[in-house]
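User: I'm designing a mutation panel for Kinesin family member 1A and want to avoid disrupting the core. Could you give me a predicted structure to guide residue selection? Please restate the sequence first so the numbering is unambiguous.

Assistant: Good idea. Sequence first, for numbering, then the predicted structure tokens:
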Amino acid sequence: LSALSSRAGSIASLHDRIMFSPGSEEAIERLKETEKIIAELNETWEEKLRRTEAIRMEREALLAEMGVAIREDG
């Protein structure tokens, strides 16, 4: 966890330097992807479970709107 914290600090510093560099759109995209990965790594198991359950319920609701029935066992 300490390694992730120091990595996040390094990314913040890199982010500041990249924002002022000309022609750095690709670097900014890579930085955004890295920030997203770090956020996912810092997410707790319970948060991941809640997010997954919300996605499942949304998917089931959309399928029900289309008239597709879903069995209880999957």
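For picking mutation sites, this is relevant: The mean pLDDT is 81. Residues 1-42 form one domain.
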